[in-house]
Amino acid sequence: MGLTDVSIRNSKSKDKAFKMSDGGGLYLLLNPNGSRWWRFDYRFGGKRKTLSMGVYPEVSLKDVRERRDEARKMLEAGIDPSNARKAKKESDSGADTFETIAREWFEKFSSTWSLTHGERIIRRLERDVFPWIGKRPIKEITAPELLSVLRRIESRGAVETAHRASQNCGQVFRYAVATGRAERDPSGDLKGSIPPTKVKHHASITDPKEIGGLLRAIDAYEGGLVVRCALRLAPLVFVRPGELRRAEWSEIDFDKAEWRIPAEKMKMREKHIVPLSRQALEVLRELQPLTESGRYLFPSPRSLDRPMSENAVLAALRRMGYSGNQMTGHGFRSMASTILNEQGWNRDAIERQLAHAERDEIRAAYNYAQHLQERKKMMQAWADYLEEVKAGGEIVPFRKTVKLT
Fold it and tell me: Among this protein's residues, is 191 annotated catalytic?
């Protein structure tokens, strides 16, 4: 039977300290001098521990039970309540916790990444790392402690995410070392502790008949107009999914038939020009009355100030019956790359249109418009090819032989 306020008030001290149990590890310790201290006994890592929970009556019976329940939830989540309290005190006092330094690192370097890449990093840390070691002083975090964080990610089958989280944590630790707030990077001790990832290529469709079926399925898609337009535009521009969903009306030049993507949105941090075919412009003009009053071509249904979800196109493909082994949002890039190379287009023009990395950084700064005239012809020819396969007509591979001057 648990304690009551009446039983506590009526209790009297004795020559020796004694306990009044409330259950669940919680008890009131009465000392010979009359003081009454709340205590919570628990086991963590095979060891018995005791956590002080305040003095009665400053901490009421109701309040201490809430503190006990919170501590028990931490234990169920694999967190030591004593360590959590210590970390919170150190965090409140401005100590160098992992989360504090990680956010500082992110703020410093995120300007060098694309917006999508940066979002993935901070979301990964917030979801999979901060809840477990975020409040810990970074210099006290050990390799086994970091491994337990990565094991949780691995246990749900997200092996690649575990490797990426390890990489990000290593970057944070090395930043802490460089700024004098840690002595070493424990992530280096974990090499080989997480199973290797299996190399996966983005599923794509490259057979002309199957491409035609996909395009007809897109036209028949019964979801919202915004997502259907994104699906129709994706094969025509074959940009990365993050670049597509973040497209803004201010970047579209209808007169020049170009979409100019700022460098900060691109994976390689280089501005990029996407020539817009007649078919791409038709999609944009259909979408224009619906979303042009806002910032994004493809806004979120919840807020016009945010782009649509990164899973919107992928979810639509699944609704259309295409599994992850058949087609992905990235698959439109593989589709275009494969067929355009087969058709004999200039490989450099294809790579430039795919916005792949330029190894020479000086050249990269000036090459965003490289092969632009040829790329414009290529993008229109590609759109015409897609239109023909969608109609189910006879497909005659186009072999480019004319050199542009």
Answer: no
**What is the helix, strand, coil percentage profile of the chain, to 5?**
55, 10, 35
Is 333 labeled as catalytic in the residue annotation? yes
Question: One of 124, 333, 375, 390 is an active-site residue; which one?
Answer: 333
And the tokens for 232?
Answer: 């129709």
Q: Which of 14, 123, 285, 356 is catalytic?
A: 356
313 near 230, Cβ under 8 Å?
Answer: yes
pLDDT digit string, tens, across residues 338-388: 999 999 999 989 999 998 755 444 444 446 667 899 999 999 999 999 999
- Tokens, residue 290: 């619906």
Is 42 among the catalytic positions? Answer: no
Please tell me the predicted confidence (pLDDT) of residue 377. 95
For the chain, where do the domains classified as CATH 3.30.160.390 start and end?
A: 5-78
CA-nearest of 264, 232, 245 to 309 is: 245
For residue 397, say if its preceding peptide bond is cis, omega within 30 degrees of 0.
no
Q: Which of 14, 43, 285, 366 is catalytic?
A: 366
Q: Which of 124, 272, 330, 375 is catalytic?
A: 330
**Among the options 68, 240, 246, 375, which is catalytic?**
240
Fold classification of 5-78 (topology level): Double Stranded RNA Binding Domain (3.30.160)
Confidence category of residue 396, pLDDT binned at 50, 70, 90: very low
pLDDT tens per residue, range 150-188: 999 999 888 889 999 999 999 999 999 998 999 999 999
Establish whether 240 is a catalytic residue.
yes
Residues 18-41 have a mean pLDDT of 93
The letter for the amino acid at 184 is: R
**Is 356 designated active site?**
yes
Instruction: Tell me whether residue 152 is one of the annotated catalytic residues.
Output: no
Intervals of CATH 1.10.443.10 along the chain = 208-391
